[in-house]
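Q&A FORM
Asked by: J.P.
Topic: structure of Nuclear transport factor 2 family protein

PROVIDED:
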Amino acid sequence: MKKLLTLFLWLVLSAQALPARQVPSEQQAAILAPVNAIFAALETGDATALLRHVYPDGWVTAPGRGADGAVRKQSWAQFAARMKPETAFEERIFDPVVHVDQDVAVVWARFTVVAGGKLVNCGYDHFDLVREQKAWKVMNLTFSSNMKACEAP
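REPLIED BY: S.T.
REPLY: Here is the structure written out as tokens.
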């Protein structure tokens, strides 16, 4: 047991000592481009524009947002089918953290959603992206919802 605890502590301390890999700003901009394009499509309710920046078979997932607190999950194609200009909303992210390794990237950021001039949701977005033929696309989006902790930036 003592050896196991020692190994665990060594692993934790070693992981903390690893330097953070910086994502060059031009690479970060390329990764955030499809994320920002999705937000632009949400503002206009343009499903066709949204689908240009995602893998339609990827998922939009919201833990605890379905009936009885169940996870709500739908494909991007299903999500886009529900989009209409009259249900458009404004989503913004703040201080995104981007991690990348070759053709895989993740974006983690606090978000707010405003609809009809009113703050209606906030929490954290987690996007995972894949680069294919030199273009980044969003595979999945998972987001939390935490209105109690919502602060206007």
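FOLLOW-UP: The first strand starts at residue 54 and ends at 62.
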